[in-house]
Amino acid sequence: MFKNILRLRTFKGVKLLQFQVIRRQLFSPSPLGLLEFDTQQQILRQKIAHRKGDFLKRLQVYMDDGKKILTEDITTLLYLADNDDEFNFALEVIARYKELQEKQSFHTYFPVGIHALQMLYLHGKHDMAFKWFLDEKYNVETSCRNRQCFMIMMDLLYEHGRFEDVVSLLTAADNYLDRKYPELTNLVLASLYRMNTRESLEKMMTFLNELCLDPVQLTNRCALLSVMLAYKQDEVELMLEILQLPIFHVCSKKFISTIPNMKILAYIELGRVEEAVDILKDAVVKYKKPVPLFFQEVLDKLDSAVTKSGNLELQSLCQSMFRTFKVAGFVLPTHIDDYMLGVIKYKEYEMLLNINRHMTVYSGIKSFSSRLAMKDTKLIT
Question: Which pTM was predicted?
Fold first, then answer.
């Protein structure tokens, strides 16, 4: 699945894996831990692929005789499994492993749930993963009901277009997690946006009201997806009201340039063409950072609305501004949907060092991480 996406790079004598850009629907593989899992999987398979049959037979004997399942054996099994029978066997072994873990006084706290979901994700087994995730027989709160597990499971469902299931999982997450984490809210709001129905709009507004009670949990992407869903459902007044939320005054540089586009679309629908043109005029006059960016489809709709108005002076002014924007490079050919649902990446040096948010930063990287971040990385939210 991830062929030709890794290359070796040397930094002060240390070989690092550098990841190229990967096209995905919402999250890049790094925050899901998929690249690290896939890399370790390939390494292990090259080492012991010829002993796979003997290894599986030995594990089956352990299962039949009720012997203890070692954490190392679980790890190896998850990396080696590559068909439905082996996936099901791995999940049964995990169930036995968790039973034995509960009976002993010492716990390794191995993230078995995370790795099991990563295994199923890489093979596209969304049905199997969802059934397993909901089955209490296999799941224990500390291993399978944490933020990372919910994130992987929800992103897998999102990847396969199961948007209603993504939304339903957030309710389950509320029973196990202390708050609504941004990763999960982004997935839910993106799912509601992709559903694009009156019912999804109602759910989104209920959800948005909950997030507004704790603004820290409201992300830029959630707010913008709410605005655009209101627009798609012809709720222009609601769209403009959402744009009054405080978050739009502190929006990140990536998203703040989209706000004028949304206002232009709203004013066009309300027949307030001159006010829509005023937004363009403000952009031309101010030229402040971040530089204004306008979608070509938005400018086309404004051009059509101005032409229908019959105001020749306004038409001339718009054409002049359109030319200015194109020459200055302020026009985006990207479709708004593609922009809104663009990939979410984490800092590249975090990917290189496999530092997901639930993991500890190893002291050995401190000496070079800051310079690596300055030279080769940037954060895209």
Answer: 0.78
